[in-house]
Amino acid sequence: MGNGVICIIQARMGSERLPGKVIKEIKGIPMIVHILNRLNQSSKIEKTIVATSTNSENDQLVEIVENAGGTIFRGSEDDVLKRYVDAAEQFEGEYIIRVTGDCPLISAEVIDTLIDKFLEAKVDYMRVDVPNTFARGFDAEIFTKEALIKAHKEATEARYREHVTLYMYEHPEEFTIEKMEAEESWNRPNYRLCVDTKEDFEVVEKIYDALYDDNSHFTIDDIISYLDNHPEVSNINQSIIQKDV
Q1: Residues 113-139: pLDDT tens digits?
Q2: Cα–Cα 20 to 30 A to 185, which of 71, 132, 137, 198?
Q3: Domain count across the chain
Q4: Which segments does the entry list as coiled coil (predicted)?
């Protein structure tokens, strides 16, 4: 009997600052495929799904994921909350990990730790503590299907429909919520490892150039060690301001 955990990666081709970034190639492989490969290192995720919209601009993304052996779900472009509900119901997830398509250094070690802590705590929602203790780019959230459906039923504002878990963590009186802070060796809030701009992409490319060897198996510890020893790399995107929700 499995643990009921599925991972849904939110991804689309539209991006204001770096259009088409989810399929931008690193070492000749599209970014979304690297994310899938890294998530496949998890010992606790039972199924990983890329959830995109039905808009035709995402057809190329769908083709790339399917050619790489990945699973696709297509739903609403703007109502991402409903897209998640529909995907969770189709793939029968009891617990849902949410990851975004702009985190090509996502860590299976972090996610497996998050799953363990979440199942032990028996809460509705838990997230990796970004950006206070973890670097951006290791972002992940986990929540129960029940909490997702409740948010879907109660959240009416457009921003809640666009940002899947915003209703949950803005209504702590309705949901039990916890965050997972980074252990000391992973505590690097000053690093920025998501991809939103060309500077972000340059940082990720340099990390892959240094650590990637025909697979995506290098770990969060490898990444942190590299950046600790190469401050000139982590400094490339230090001036980038994160967009507000």
Answers
A1: 999 999 999 999 999 999 999 999 999
A2: 198
A3: 1
A4: none
For residue 238 the two structure tokens come to 């230090």
Q: Which amino acid is at 135?
A: A
Q: Is 109 inside a domain boundary?
A: yes
Chain centroid to Cα 224, Å, comes to 18
Q: What is the pTM of this model?
A: 0.95
Spatial contact of 86 and 75, defined as CB atoms under 8 Å apart: yes
Joined together, the tokens standing for residue 206 give 């340099």
Peptide linkage before 104 cis (omega within 30 of 0): no
Which CATH number fits the domain that encloses residue 71?
A: 3.90.550.10
The Cα 20–Cα 125 span in angstroms is: 30
Read off the amino acid at residue 197.
T
Dist. CA 221–CA 231, nearest whole Å: 16
95-100 and 71-75 beta bridge pairing: unpaired
